[in-house]
Specification:
Blueprint (H helix, E strand, L loop, with lengths): L1 H23 L2 E7 L4 H16 L3 E7 L2 H14 L6 E5 L3 H6 L3 E2 L2 H4 L10 H5 L2 E2 L2 E2 L2 E2 L1 E10 H6 L13 H13 L5 E3 L4 H9 L19 H15 L10 H6 L3 E7 L3 H6 L4 E4 L11 E4 L1 E6 L6 H16 L2 H5 L4 E2 L8 H4 L15 E3 L5 H9 L4 H4 L4 H18 L1
Parallel strand pairs: 1-2, 1-3, 9-10, 12-15
Antiparallel strand pairs: 3-13, 4-13, 5-6, 7-13, 8-10, 8-11, 8-12, 8-14
Amino acid sequence: MKKLAWVLALCLITVMALGSVALAAPVEVDYWSVFTGADGATMQGMVDAFNASQDEVKVNHTPMTADDLYQKIPLAVQSGSGIPDVTIVHIERIPAFVSQDLIWPIDTLLENGILRENYIPSAWERTDIDGEHYGVPLDVHSYVTYYNKTLFEKYDLNAYVEDGYLTFDEVKELADKAKAAGYTDKVMGLDWFRAQMLSYYAQLGEGKLTEDGETPSFNNDEMARVYETLKDLHDNGYTTVKGDDPMQLFYAGNLLIWPEGIWMKAGALDAGVDIGMLPSLCYTPETCKNWTSSHNFVQFADDDRTEEEDIAVAKFINYMGENSLVWARDGGQVPAHVSINDVPEFKDMMQAFLADPERGDELAIYYYKYWGLFDTAFSRNGFEPVFGTMSAEDALKAAEQEVIDAIAAQ
């Protein structure tokens, strides 16, 4: 009898232990992101650090190319199977997801510690749509202006960048000064067409792509002026020409000024260039704008997602915001969580000015439901009007009509 009692007691202890283990099992969160290169490794390291920091939530990170993710998400939502609990998407894509009822407002996250005031306002506000909120920004990443500090020192050009800005007029002046002193290489790069054009377009008027949220309206005098600005620089010998590779020219020390994204900083440093970073080239410092995108955490529609999983997602997002120095240091990005401004190491990074709350209006984050259609159509002819192979009028007319036709075909 005593033996039976002992066996029963042992069984009870075992059951209780197993129950305790079951209760302690972490909530699993499926997380998809668009980070597949070096930034993918950085993100995985951040996920691993979060998982190691506590035992309540386990995040399973699945990186994939943006094209793959944007194809898989609608299929997953429509089938109701395999929907991630949280996903990183580009902020420009969110309005389309909202219009297609693929994405949910983040109400539960807002009830569990995600606070608006913790994020760069210009990034947060872009996902306020029709009275609901849909995204939590991980970062902002902007199109900026690199310059070769060695060449600027050699040709006595530093006075042009002392105020932290560089205007189109100053590009001409410093180029003429450098050439008079013997500089014979290229001055300014024409590189990623869409981001470069939209940086400058945002400085003229309101920089809108649509007036009513639907019909494109970028075929206008302001966009034509951007083409004219760049064509004038090109025709007078101040820019790279068709067939040039601005990146290689800059890496080789044969280009003074290189407009490009903050994500290219590591490559330039690895190439051995002593670089400085400024905002986008501007018409005036007062009107300066940088084309900016943002990686946002979102939640796609899933009737099976539990409140427990939502709470776990909120905990994960908060951790990523509060521990985002590695995203700036190793990923070359600008964290959108404003706490980054209190981190001394970040303050010394050249891209830190993009996180300055007082300069938030310099971030030109575009909002258009048909962003994908616009991007394809607008980018089709690239800098051809600047190179003189077609007119700006024809390029803009064709691009806008292509968007109109594509919308009608949906």
